[in-house]
Amino acid sequence: MRILHTSDWHLGQHFMGKSRELEHQAFIRWLLEAVNEHSVDAMIIAGDVFDTGTPPSYARTLYNRFIVDLQKTRCQQLIIVGGNHDSVATLNESRDLLACLNAHVVGGVTEALEEQVVVLKNHQGDPGAVVCAIPFIRPRDVLESRAGDSDTDKQQALQNAIAEHYQKVFELASDKKLPTVATGHLTTVGGQMTESVREIYIGTLSAFPASAFPPADYIALGHLHRAQKVSDQDHIRYSGSPLPLSFDETSRGKQVLLVDLEPETPPQITELDVPIFRSLKSIKGNLETIQQALKQIDDDSPLTTWLELEVSTDDYLTDLQKPIQNMLEDRHLEVLRVRRKRETNSTSLQSESKETLDELDVAEVFARRLNDEELDEQRLATLNQAFNEILSNLDEADENDKKPELKDEKELMV
To answer: 36: part of which helix (H) or strand (E)?
Structure first.
């Protein structure tokens, strides 16, 4: 049978204040066509369906409409597991209703382990594979905290608890005597992250070793936005996000994965490229170099190209606005961020003094603040871990009052 593996849709995301609604609409349309074209029997979404725990109404509408429309395709089996951005309550609130549409939702770890075991049918209607549908695991799901443990002890205890949970679910699945797929939403040791990925610090565990996964035929992972194998093992994969969620994700294409499973045979994995629905480009150099690069951009696409400019200059950012606006006149381009090139030597002090908070993200501000202190490596590691743990637990505000997209873009996408 054939399974399509995808993850990290982040429905409802605002990219530097801009909605991704039109891009998500285009992706879902393409995906529904792809499942028919490639004869997909079942689909797995490995976490972070939504960007926040309280997604805007249009994101919920896209989600629900997609599940309904999937029933009109060849692929009528869907498994959705929660990610660290997802609210367990939000995903589970419609779980029973969506089950009537052949969608099995596991918002969070459940006490009844059998709820995380799902049998999938092949195109002939026979059992073809069994899925260990394991979502993002929070420490309270699998571990009781104990006073007096060292950081090392806590990390090892949590790693063991997560591995034990995987093993228990896998043992239940193994009884089905079918090819086995396990899901997960976490960081693995050696995984390549991008600017848009928030580090997951589950208690004190920052990365899960590939060797701790059970011996499933295929492991479908989410959380890292760059598609990749884990520890060079072909059957352990991150599908990556279908849309670039930061400018540094544009250097590689996006994809979903087609996984063909047969008994007692290694899975056959095909990388299916996702089209670019909106171009994101990062341009670096002085004003003259940037102007030449802008001339090379084809801006005939339906959606406005979004730009990040890193300018080599000592001028204030406000002094750059007019020449940049002149470059963009009558172009289907929009600059979302202008940054100044940063130097690392002492001659950059005067330039850095002109830097504004608009040029930095939260992590960069914290890193700059730490650099002002004389701290040993252990203290730095502890502070960075605490900072990332706080970030990972922050609930983002509801963004129902988002700015609408330009009307002409919506018309062009119809």
So the answer is: helix 21-37
Predicted TM-score (pTM) of the model is 0.82
Q: Are strands 42-46 and 2-6 parallel, antiparallel or unpaired?
A: parallel
What are the start-end ranges of the H helices in 175-308?
287-295
Q: Which residue in 293, 296, 281 sits closest to 246, CA to CA?
A: 281
Query: Quick one: 57 exposed, middle or buried, by C-beta within 10 A (0-12, 13-18, 19+)?
Result: exposed
- CA 329 from centroid of its chain's CA atoms: 34
Cα dihedral 308, 314, 317, 320 sign: negative
Which class in CATH covers the domain with range 2-273?
Answer: alpha beta
Determine the Cα–Cα distance for residues 321 and 70; give it in Å rounded to an integer. 46
Q: Partners of 338 in the beta sheet?
A: 309
Confidence of residue 302 (pLDDT cuts 50, 70, 90): confident
What's the CATH code, domain 281-397? 3.30.160.720
Amino acid at 256: V
Q: How far, in Å, CA of 319 to CA of 324, rounded? A: 10
Buried b (16+ CB within 10 A) or exposed e, 217-249: bbbbbbbbbbbbebeeeebbbbbbbbbbbbbbb
Edge to edge, the sheet with strand 305-311 lists 280-285, 305-311, 333-340
Most confident of 30-39, 326-335, 358-367: 30-39
Residue 238's contacts (CB-CB under 8 Å, 6 or more residues apart) are 7, 191, 221, 222, 223, 224, 226, 227, 228, 230
Q: What is the DSSP string of 330-395?
A: TSSEEEEEEEEPPP-SGGGHHHHTT--GGG--HHHHHHHHHHTS---HHHHHHHHHHHHHHHHHPP
Amino acid at 289: T
Query: Which residue ranges make up each domain of the chain?
Result: 2-273, 281-397
Q: What is the pLDDT of residues 105-136, one digit of tens each?
A: 999 998 899 999 999 999 899 999 999 999 99
Q: At what angle do helices 317-328 and 287-295 cross, to 10 degrees?
A: 30
